[in-house]
Design brief:
It is a single chain. The chain is an alpha+beta fold. Helix content is about 40%, strand content about 25%. It has two helices and twelve strands. The strands form two sheets. Strands 1-2-5-4-3-12 form a six-stranded antiparallel β-barrel. It has a six-stranded antiparallel β-barrel with strand order 6-7-8-11-10-9. Helix 1 packs antiparallel against helix 2. The protein starts with a helix and ends in a 9-residue tail after the last strand.
Length: about 280
Amino acid sequence: MAARRSAQRSSVAMLRAFLWGGSFGLFLLLLALLGRSLPAIPLDTLCLNGVRITTVLARFWFGVNHFAQQLFRADDVSRELQELRSKVTRLQAEQVRVRELLEENRRLRSLLQLAQTLPSPSLGAEVIGIGGSNWFHTVLVNKGEQDGVPLGAPVISHHGLVGRVWEVRARTSIVLLLTDRHSAVGVSLTGHPGVHGIVKGTGRAWCELVHLSRHVVPRKGEVLVTSGLGGVFPKGIPVGEVISVRTTTEPPTVRVRPFLRLSELQEVIILTNAPPPLNP
């Protein structure tokens, strides 16, 4: 910036010198012409005409000089504006990155706190792919047999239960999501102590609560957690909440919205010492 301003000052100085030299030369030329053609012009008239000519030239020089300064100033303003726009773009990108880091930190803290409440040893993994169709809802994680991932191991996120390991490969694993048709997990109703049931996947965004241990009607908004029965899923992992109850059927049709958020599923924890299910 300093070098550019120095160059601009040099250009203005050269322009001024050129205009002054040209004006002075033109003034001398006019005097010579007047001296040849009108030798009898009085001195006061000659001086008056010289002053007028000098005034015109001075005004002309001032206008040109002012135009040059405005031109250089506009160039500076344009460059500064471009620099400010670049800085704003960089700051906006950094702000987005900071928000992403804060969100990632929040997720990891929640995930760590949830894992610390479980007695089972665990293994952290990242979701590297999302699969799914009308028949299968799955995700791919970046840990496999070489990392100690067992078949059927429960998988959790910072929201709660995600599903279980469906297939183990050398360096990756396929996780069957809670919403898949082949998925089923034993749950307890937090609003009805001692009442258990099974949450089954439907292949859609919700699940169904079936096979209640007692004839009760769950309440809308009631939270379901893993019951721990069967030894596959540890007790107390959040599963979902009841979103609708239709009592016109027998037994009542109970829809459950899983706490699983596929759009936010980036990091998971695999519980490595849980026994595999009988029919994986």
